[in-house]
Amino acid sequence: MAYLALGLILFLGIHSISIVAPRWRDATAAQMGHAWRGLYSLISIAGFILIIWGYGLARRQSVVLYTPAESMRYLTAVLMLPVFPLLLAAYFPGRIRNAVGHPMLLAVMFWALAHLLGSGTCANVLLFGGFLAWALADRISFRWRSARPISTAPPGRWNDLIAVVAGLGLYVAFAHWLHVRWIGVQPFPS
Description:
Layout: H1 2-20, H2 22-32, H3 34-60, H4 72-80, H5 83-89, H6 95-100, H7 103-118, H8 122-141, H9 159-182
């Protein structure tokens, strides 16, 4: 569990600098230039690797904090439906992105909440609860800071359709094949 916690601290910590110290982050990034991006990327990648490794180790010795009702499996599936379309809408600007404001953060919130409702092990609560708390804090922080631009496709009238169709395709692929291959859990057991 320690590796998972360390990974979350590194990954979410570096992603939280803009929340807690946006002026310091901007000044440091301006001063360091590309070195800031390199450092940011290295810490993010190290954190992400530790999250994956630590989560795999923690799942072997799972402590059950709560047992969700079997019906939560269906609520989890429904809450996961918008996740991939929202993720893609962040990079394909259109009406979805304009309406939601920060589609990637909303996708993280849906993803984390869905998984918290679907499994109550200590590792899951730490992982998904950590991401949910971070996404909520980041979303709230936009009241006093502005979003930094990200590289996206050019705005276009087909971007929403691309985000929804490709996103739902990714949902089906994950639900039926990729989740069990990559995570080892079949979301829809036969």
